[in-house]
Design the sequence.
């Protein structure tokens, strides 16, 4: 029982329950089932990106270019659609461009042995700049109504959004790969000691290349969903998403230095942040105050495990 209480996932569940109790007392519309499902639409795109970001952070790396990759791939889709290409072909081109952007990051990182933070910070500006070059200050609109069903529609006539279904399926897939496969064990091993993995024959560079390429693919898929939801493409689309994604991953218990963390913890943190924002929006809390509260929650998430470890050490010494 003491081990369960010290698990970060248990603490996240307690915090999530507390949010539901507090918000339901403050707002009579919070516990409406349809409202709760619709609230997921505002963070599902970030949640999808966070799944692959979790794996990257566990290896001790980070991808700061995910939001800019979304903007670049969405801009390419918008230009292609405006030029007469069908929406299906334009969406396919969007996925291809995003995947190539992630592959570019992976090649530069592995071939030249550069820190992922430096490379993706550079591509953060590069990809966003390409989006502005393609669109300028204009927006692409006029997408077909059927396209909106992808990001705005509901699954099989229920009240469950399609985007939530996509996220749930991807969360199961990424969780299985991370926790039940050799590839996932390699991810943890790289985060704990990359040099030892290289000497042990683990294909470190290949794994990094795969992760950053998949990150690009997932980012472009999120771009398709976001464009479908708002039916518009602008060069400033998804601005700031990368920091919110990293915040959710760290809040989910993933060590920023790598080597530890779980997919279920990240999923719980995504819902915790999403429903906290939803509840505060019902209370007309300004966005700036929301940002401050989420920042305090992140600091709490970083400090609490260390405080619990110190308390456990003192208890063992006294025993």
Sequence:
């Amino acid at each position: 029982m003491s081990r369960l209480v010290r698990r970060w996932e248990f603490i996240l569940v307690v915090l999530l329950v507390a949010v539901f109790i507090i918000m339901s007392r403050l707002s009579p519309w919070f516990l409406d089932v349809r409202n709760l499902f619709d609230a997921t639409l505002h963070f599902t795109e970030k949640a999808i990106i966070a799944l692959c970001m979790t794996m990257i952070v566990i290896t001790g790396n980070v991808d700061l270019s995910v939001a800019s990759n979304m903007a670049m791939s969405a801009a390419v889709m918008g230009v292609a659609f405006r030029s007469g290409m069908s929406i299906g072909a334009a969406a396919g081109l969007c996925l291809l461009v995003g995947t190539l952007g992630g592959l570019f990051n992976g090649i530069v990182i592995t071939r030249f042995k550069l820190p992922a933070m430096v490379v993706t910070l550079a591509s953060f500006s590069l990809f966003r700049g390409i989006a502005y070059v393609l669109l300028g200050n204009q927006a692409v609109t006029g997408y077909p109504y059927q396209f909106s069903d992808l990001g705005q529609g509901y699954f099989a006539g229920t009240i469950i959004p399609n985007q939530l279904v996509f996220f749930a399926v991807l969360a199961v897939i990424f969780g299985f790969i991370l926790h039940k496969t050799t590839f996932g064990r390699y991810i943890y091993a790289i985060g704990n000691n990359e040099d030892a993995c290289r000497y042990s024959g683990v294909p470190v560079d290949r794994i990094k290349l795969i992760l950053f390429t998949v990150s690009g693919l997932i980012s472009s898929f999120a771009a398709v969903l976001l464009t479908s939801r708002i039916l518009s493409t602008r060069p400033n689309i998804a601005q700031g998403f990368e920091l919110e994604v990293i915040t959710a991953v760290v809040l989910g218990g993933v060590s920023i230095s790598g080597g530890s963390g779980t997919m279920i913890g990240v999923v719980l943190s995504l819902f915790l942040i999403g429903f906290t924002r939803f509840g505060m929006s019902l209370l007309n809390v300004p966005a700036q105050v929301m940002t401050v509260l989420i920042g305090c929650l992140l600091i709490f998430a970083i400090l609490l495990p260390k405080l619990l470890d110190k308390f456990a050490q003192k208890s063992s010494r006294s025993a």
